[in-house]
Amino acid sequence: MLRKLFIFLLTLSALSCFSETTEWTPKNLPMPYLKDKTQHVCNPEQILSQAATDSINNMLTMLEEKRGVQAIVVVVGRVENADAYRFGMDLAEHYGIGSKEQNSGLLIVLATKDRKYQILTGTGLEGTLPDAICRRVENRLMVPALKRGDWDEAMFTSVKALSTYCMGDKSLVNSNGDLDEDELSQLLGLIIFGFCTFLGAIYAVVNALRIRRTCPQCRNSKLKVVKTRIERGKDKHLYKVFSYRCKKCGYEDEKKYSLARNQAHLRNVGPYSFGSGWGRGFSGGGGFGGGGSFGGGSFGGGGSGGSF
Asked: Closest by alpha carbon to 304, among 131, 106, 111?
């Protein structure tokens, strides 16, 4: 009996030492997603609670289904050389996180003992989650919780915020490439608007060429279009501006032509007010959805990170 207890304590001690000294690398880090596509969280040292892990998995599974964003969250004690950025970039490259078509991969790394954190976005996601947005999420949500040692709160609220931004960007498509009914309506509206703007531009060019005037200064030559540009007027409409010049005397003039009277504005995903409390609204265990696979996405270094 004492021998069994001694072996148990020795094993427990060995595991504890391993956890304390291990520097995780992309090659030795377990990747649960490959065995179960609903498991987006790598939590080999059980730093996050099971409830927080399940909640994050549920959010990111929905995000992948609705918007095609393939996200992985890594929470460990230490990473190689205590460099969360390099670790994240190497991990993203090692697996090819995100689809090759959209490059909409998302990687969040937390190394609690190194006291480092990093958000990395695929090249196709940098417009939805620019560096400034990632930094705002970190400064307002992640870092305050990290400084308190509340790993669950830090990861849950950050993932929730980033997911909300991604869900708000309807230019991202889901994993099947299907669009919702309201998304189809918006797409049709954009196509019509683009077609009308195109016709307006053609009309403006034809009209400008048709009414090329005689130079009012020397009256010996017609004005020639030397430059065009698009600008927004005080009435908020878009105009095409033609710059004219006389080849003979150098006289210059400009003329504006309206491109369209009805200008459509895409809704910007602005700053959200994020509620705290990782246990609200996203509870439940992770299911078994079959093994996942990565699509060969690429990362260009976009995102934000730091230490706490």
From this structure: 131
3-state secondary structure of 92: helix
Q: What is the pLDDT of residues 21-65, one digit of tens each?
A: 689 999 999 999 999 999 999 999 999 999 999 999 999 999 999
- The pLDDT of residue 261 is 41
- Supply 197's token pair: 């703007």
Q: Where are the beta strands (DSSP E) in the chain?
A: 41-42, 70-76, 105-111, 116-122, 223-232, 238-246, 252-258, 299-307
Angstrom distances, CA of residue 133 to CA of 45, 142, 193: 29, 13, 29
Query: Which long-range CB contacts under 8 A does 305-308 form with residues at least 24 apart?
Result: 305/84, 305/85, 305/88, 305/109, 305/116, 305/117, 305/118, 305/119, 305/120, 305/138, 306/116, 306/117, 306/138, 306/143, 307/114, 307/115, 307/116, 307/117, 308/115, 308/116, 308/117, 308/143, 308/146, 308/147
- Angle between helix axes 151-168 and 50-67 (nearest 10 degrees) is 10
The three-class DSSP label of residue 64 is helix
> Domains plus CATH for the chain?
15-179+289-307 (3.10.310.50), 190-258 (no CATH)
Reported as a single tens digit per residue, the pLDDT across 73-104 is 999 999 999 999 999 999 999 999 998 888 99
Average pLDDT along the chain: 80
DSSP 3-state assignment of 249? coil
Rounded CA separation 74/107 (Å) = 8
Burial category of 253 from C-beta neighbours within 10 Å (exposed 0-12, middle 13-18, buried 19 and up): middle
DSSP secondary structure letters along 15-60: HHHHHHH--B-TTTS--GGGT-TT--EE-TT--S-HHHHHHHHHHH
Tokens in use for 18?
A: 């391993």
What is the per-residue pLDDT for 23? 94
